[in-house]
Design goal:
Blueprint (H helix, E strand, L loop, with lengths): L1 H4 L2 E3 L6 E4 L1 H19 L9 E5 L2 E5 L2 H7 L8 H13 L4 H20 L4 H22 L1 E2 L5 H16 L8 H14 L9 E7 L7 E3 L2 E4 L13 E3 L2 E5 L19 H24 L4 E4 L5 H9 L3 E3 L4 H11 L3 E2 L11 E2 L2 E7 L2 E7 L7 E7 L2 H23 L2 E4 L3 H14 L5 H13 L1 H9 L4 H14 L7 E4 L4 E4 L6 E3 H19 L3 E4 L32 E3 L3
Parallel strand pairs: 6-17, 10-11, 10-13, 11-12
Antiparallel strand pairs: 1-23, 2-22, 3-4, 5-18, 7-17, 8-16, 9-15, 10-14, 15-16, 18-21, 19-20
Helix pairs in contact: 2-5, 3-4, 4-5, 4-17, 5-14, 5-17, 6-13, 6-14, 6-17, 7-8, 7-12, 8-12, 13-14, 13-16, 15-16
Length: 564
């Protein structure tokens, strides 16, 4: 009788869905596997592209981070894979597909352990130990090209850019684009901010019509009558950059001016004109030949500048204005009072020219340029979008390679070497950790296996060949990987298939952390009401509590009986 008198312990709201235990971990792993299977076929130079349609917008890509973002994944555990792909893309630019595939394979190996009764904390401990060992080995075998001549460093950057572009849609033009990207990064000097390189797209022409501008290029802005009378080219111009509106202000709808004499109205109008003319006179007095403003330049100012042989452009994009500032050495002004020659920028040549169907303003031959612009040409917008993503990945890789000159072999060679090392280490320890580290080593082999399969080769045969070469050849055979073109094995380092050390280090640590995070979650608590649109009505039940929509008695609060 005492059992019936115990109080109920209110814990979770009505309608809350909970799942816990080993079954929940395996469910999360299965959800992640479904995502991995989608992106796995995009890996490598022979990887397939994905066509994703979202809200009428079509995207064709094989970039792992883009695919993950466009999939709009809602499963809470699978979203972690989206996050690590984004982090890899933001940090190093490449290796986004590899990090997702590697995390998925680690979870797949962990699933068999869980089904056999091994607890998740033991797996996590083994994975973290294996990751630390692998990163240390990675540092030991990485080849540092520091101290090389400028020609050798440029060759290194070209090889890294070509390796990145190998798996992209623009792979057929990898030499053309790799040279362009290395030139663009070189123009930045010590400031290696990616935003300093502007990428523009103009429909028409072929990819080989893509051009690199050693300065700034941006599309002609909105202009008023009188713009065509302005000069469109200058040699060594003085450039004034403004964040200032140069047009007559329109009164607001509710503006009210009370006057007692009609002549007073004319004095108000005259004052407005005098203010704008004073600003324009001050600008003309600076000696500037080109005036750019973040805000609008009206028709009055446009005609004023045209009469005095000055070029002007208003509503210039903030990023373009900032790049112009870096390239020309000017400073953005918020007032035209007290402008000195020191704040004016300059460049060797300014010209407005036709690029395809668009008109572009080009600032070139800048003496202290720290910016560059790439104008991509192409047919379909989807193709140009993918080309932009490909160039962005290569730019990130080259930028990283400039800062960190350590490289490793690509083509799955470094994964095979790390796998061999971890297997040998596992034989020196006893207990459950030996098994976990051994299976971590096996998971690393998913990269060369996927590369081989996506190339149309026999993955098992290629993998056996690589295991043999890495086991027998010793240090001389550590760079053997998959030759995706000839569907065989090759010395990736000797064939200039190089990848920056930071790409592999970041991918390895991010994949391990994601796998450990997903394995550490053994319960998911989800309230369906939180997923409903806001403003939903209360339940229609007649019983106590709010209940869920529908007929019958509401369930009230979820209760758990306490232990006495």
């Amino acid at each position: 009788m005492a059992n019936f008198m115990r109080p109920n312990i209110i814990l979770l709201k009505d309608g809350t869905d909970t799942s816990q235990g080993k079954a929940q971990i395996i469910s999360n792993i299965n959800a992640c596997q479904a995502v991995v299977d989608i992106v796995k076929t995009t890996l490598g130079p022979r990887g397939m592209d994905k066509l994703i349609e979202n809200n009428g917008e079509t995207t064709i890509t094989n970039d792992g981070a883009t695919v993950m973002k466009k999939l709009a994944i809602v499963h809470p555990a699978a979203k972690i894979l989206v996050d690590i792909a984004k982090a890899q893309d933001n940090e190093v630019g490449d290796g986004t597909t590899s990090v997702v595939v590697l995390a998925g394979e680690l979870l797949k190996e962990a699933k068999s352990f869980l089904e056999d009764g091994l607890v998740a904390p033991q797996i996590i401990k083994g994975y973290r130990t294996a990751c630390d060992l692998a990163v240390q080995k990675l540092k030991d075998v990485a080849v540092d090209l520091q101290g090389k001549s400028p020609e050798e460093k440029r060759s290194l950057l070209l090889k890294c850019a070509e390796t990145t572009l190998n798996s992209k849609l623009v792979a057929d033009y990898k030499t053309f684009f790799a040279t362009m990207i290395v030139d663009a990064v070189t123009m930045l000097g010590e400031d290696l901010t990616v935003s300093s390189i502007g990428i523009k797209k103009v429909s028409g022409g072929s990819l080989t019509d893509t051009m690199l501008v050693d300065g700034v290029a941006f599309k002609k802005t909105f202009s008023y009558a009188g713009f065509e009378q302005q000069p469109k080219s200058f040699k060594d111009p003085k450039i004034l950059l403004l964040n200032l509106e140069l047009e007559l202000k329109a009164e607001k709808d509710n503006a009210e001016v009370r006057i007692s004499d009609p002549d007073q109205y004319q004095s108000i109008v005259d004052a407005e004109w005098r203010i704008i003319y004073d600003k324009l006179d001050l600008i003309a007095g600076t000696g500037a030949n080109v005036v750019l403003s973040r805000l609008a330049i009206g028709d009055l100012a446009t005609q004023y500048f045209a009469d005095r042989g000055i070029f002007c452009a208003g509503r210039v994009d903030a990023e373009d204005l900032d790049r112009t500032r870096k390239a020309t050495g000017g400073e953005v002004q918020t007032t035209v009072t007290g402008v000195t020659p020191k704040v004016l920028g300059t460049c060797g040549e300014f010209v407005e020219k036709q690029v395809g169907a668009e008109r572009y303003n080009l600032f070139t031959k800048c003496p202290h340029t720290k910016t560059a612009s790439i104008i991509i040409r192409g047919g379909a917008p989807q193709f140009m979008d993918e080309a932009e993503r490909s160039l962005n990945d290569a730019l990130m890789i080259v930028r990283r390679a400039v800062k960190n000159t350590k490289v490793v072999g690509g083509g799955g060679s470094i994964e095979m070497e790390l796998s061999r090392y971890l297997r040998e280490y596992a034989r020196t320890i006893a207990g459950k950790q030996q098994l976990v580290i051994n299976y971590f080593a096996r998971a690393l082999e998913v990269i060369p296996m996927a590369l081989a399969q996506n190339s149309g080769a026999d993955g098992t045969h290629i993998l056996n060949q690589l295991r043999q070469k890495h086991a027998i050849a010793g240090p001389e055979g550590r760079w053997f990987g998959v030759d995706c073109v000839n569907c065989t094995t090759c010395d990736c380092f000797a064939n200039y298939i190089w990848e920056p050390f930071v790409v592999k280090e970041s991918a390895l640590t991010a994949a391990t952390e994601a796998a450990c995070l997903i394995l550490s979650v053994d319960e998911t608590v989800k309230n369906p009401k939180s997923e409903q649109p806001q403003g939903g009505g209360k339940g229609k039940g007649k019983g106590m509590g709010k209940g869920m929509p529908g007929k019958g008695r509401g369930r009230g609060m979820r209760a758990f009986r306490g232990r006495g």
